[in-house]
Write a structure and sequence with these properties.
The protein has 254 residues and is mostly helical. It contains 13 helices and 3 strands, in the order H-H-H-H-H-H-H-H-H-H-H-E-E-E-H-H. The protein has 2 domains: 154 residues, Ribonuclease III domain (Ribonuclease iii, N-terminal Endonuclease Domain, Chain A, Orthogonal Bundle), CATH 1.10.1520; 93 residues, Double Stranded RNA Binding Domain. Helices cover 61% and strands 9% of the residues. The chain has a 3-stranded antiparallel sheet. Strand 2 and strand 3 form a beta hairpin.
């Protein structure tokens, strides 16, 4: 097995499928030579993922209406969710891509990692069967599936906070464990959420996930990042005014 096959726990019978799943379209564009790429497998993997998650949610929430099931599925198959799965597998380091794409941060780009993960699912499906692919997906998504039972159906505080912050900066919030107390089966965890060097909120819960969710909720209530962006805007305007004044006072070329 190669290192990626060890990570995913599957030895490909057809190694070309794995190579195809790991080939970014930029490789062919840059070399001006024909290369297969992972776009077709991404198309297939997306359909397989949708089926696996839909089937699982249908059984997991037998009383939920179609609208709420759709919202849950959207959380589990979002670009950010797929990026997290790809990061767990360290998928970015195995991708084959053009030098330009790599230089622009392609190995860490959310869309690239999400597409590669779907392509990998498509490759696993073709190399094995639906049952094997289902086990792979549900094992990797086990933490997310557990989380949706903790959080209210229509609310995803951590995901919402991340979307708000990534609209300002590409950096994601980080959750720091402050403490854990209590007996082994009755522990309470305290967590702080940090972003751009700022402590945005704190929370506590019976699990780390619950504490992180509480911290994200407090962060969205306080909205401390708005103070940071307002200050940066003021500083930028002041700097622009200084530059404009300096230019006006400078002697004309003559």
């Amino acid at each position: 097995m190669n290192p990626l096959e060890e990570r995913i726990g599957h030895k490909f019978r057809n190694s070309l499928l794995l190579a195809e799943a790991l080939t970014h379209p930029s490789l062919g564009h840059e070399t001006h030579r024909h290369h297969f790429d992972n776009q077709r497998l991404e198309f297939l993997g997306d359909a397989v993922l949708q089926l696996v998650i839909t089937e699982h949610l249908f059984a997991m929430f037998p009383r939920e209406a179609e609208g709420r099931l759709t919202k849950l599925r959207s959380r589990l198959v979002s670009r950010e969710a797929l990026r997290r799965h790809a990061v767990k597998l360290e998928l970015g380091q195995f991708l084959m891509m053009g030098r330009g794409e790599e230089a622009c941060g392609g190995r860490e780009r959310t869309s690239t990692l999400a597409d590669a993960f779907e392509a990998l699912l498509g490759a696993i499906y073709l190399d094995t069967n639906l049952a094997t692919t289902r086990t792979f997906v549900l094992t990797l998504a086990a933490e997310d599936l557990a989380q949706i039972e903790i959080e209210p159906i229509d609310i995803n505080p951590k995901g919402h906070l991340q979307e708000l912050l990534q609209a300002i900066s590409p950096r994601s919030p980080v959750y720091e464990l402050l403490s854990e107390s209590g007996r082994e089966h009755e522990k309470t965890f305290a967590v702080r959420v940090l972003w751009e060097g700022m402590a945005l909120g704190e929370g506590a819960g019976k699990s780390k996930k619950q504490a992180e969710t509480a911290a994200a909720c407090e962060a969205m209530q306080k909205k401390l990042w708005e103070q940071k962006t307002t200050l940066e805007s003021v500083q930028a305007n002041q700097a622009a005014d200084v530059n404009a004044t300096s230019s006006a006072l400078s002697p004309a070329d003559g």
